[in-house]
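Input (structure):
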């Protein structure tokens, strides 16, 4: 590694600690060789050496109003979730771009993956890059029965953004605890019956199409996120 590149990586690392986010995790691309996430990362940025994952809390005070049912024309408190998520997403995306700017100014290629409006394969409802798996690899939490990332501080009530960078940063990856306690509250609360108890060592079992259709029809749904007791 050249002296200039080592200096650039140190600068990037220092900058990460100043970001206006609730959690930062780092995965080294080489340590996930052979995984789907590795292939997704190098497809997007062949020079990627590190994945930086940024997380911000979704306020439970707002999420608690987000019931899935609303009368026609009703002025419902649940509508507060959209501007809140817009705020959280915009702050996260800004932080992802800030990381990229520092990386690129050091001559290290970087690609921001925003907190919203990222490319998704609508035929299979797969994102081109799995933020939650990146977050799990980075040691920010584990996957729950609702298929969401569960963090120790906020449970599943977080949004994520990522950065792929050519910088070689120290990994925060660790063998974390499985934070989901298998209480089944998310399964019982799901109005679309889209969730089932996972089998065969899987972390979750979700019918993504049932979830997507319900969310589209009702305007929004976060019941599985709302009822999860972790981080409350
Ligand atoms: S978002 Fe709603 S419909 Fe989708 S899995 Fe969660 S509770 Fe079910
Ligand atoms: S509600 Fe219970 S079963 Fe569902 S993810 Fe949270 S802890 Fe796991």
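Output (sequence):
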């Amino acid at each position: 590694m050249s002296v200039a590149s080592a200096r650039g990586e140190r600068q990037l690392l220092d900058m990460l600690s100043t970001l206006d986010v609730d959690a930062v995790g780092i995965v080294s691309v080489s340590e996930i060789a052979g995984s789907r996430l590795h292939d997704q990362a190098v497809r997007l940025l062949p020079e990627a050496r590190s994945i930086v994952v940024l997380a911000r809390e979704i306020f439970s005070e707002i999420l608690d109003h987000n019931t899935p049912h609303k009368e026609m024309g009703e002025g419902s408190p649940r509508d507060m979730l959209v501007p809140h998520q817009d705020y959280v997403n915009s702050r996260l995306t800004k932080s992802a771009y800030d990381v990229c700017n520092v990386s690129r100014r050091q001559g290290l290629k970087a690609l921001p993956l925003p907190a919203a409006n990222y490319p998704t394969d609508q035929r299979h409802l797969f994102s081109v890059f799995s933020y939650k798996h990146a977050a799990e690899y980075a040691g920010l939490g584990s996957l729950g029965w609702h298929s969401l990332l569960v963090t120790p501080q906020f449970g599943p009530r977080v949004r994520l953004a990522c950065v792929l960078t050519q910088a070689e940063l120290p990994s925060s990856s660790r063998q974390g605890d499985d934070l989901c306690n298998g209480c089944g509250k998310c399964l019982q609360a799901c109005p679309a019956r889209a969730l089932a108890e996972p089998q065969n060592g899987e972390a979750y079992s979700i019918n993504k199409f049932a979830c997507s259709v319900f969310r589209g029809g009702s305007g929004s749904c976060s019941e599985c996120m709302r009822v999860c007791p972790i981080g409350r």
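Notes: The chain has one domain: 3-227. The helical segments are 3-16, 36-44, 60-63, 81-105, 131-137, 185-189, 208-218, 223-227.
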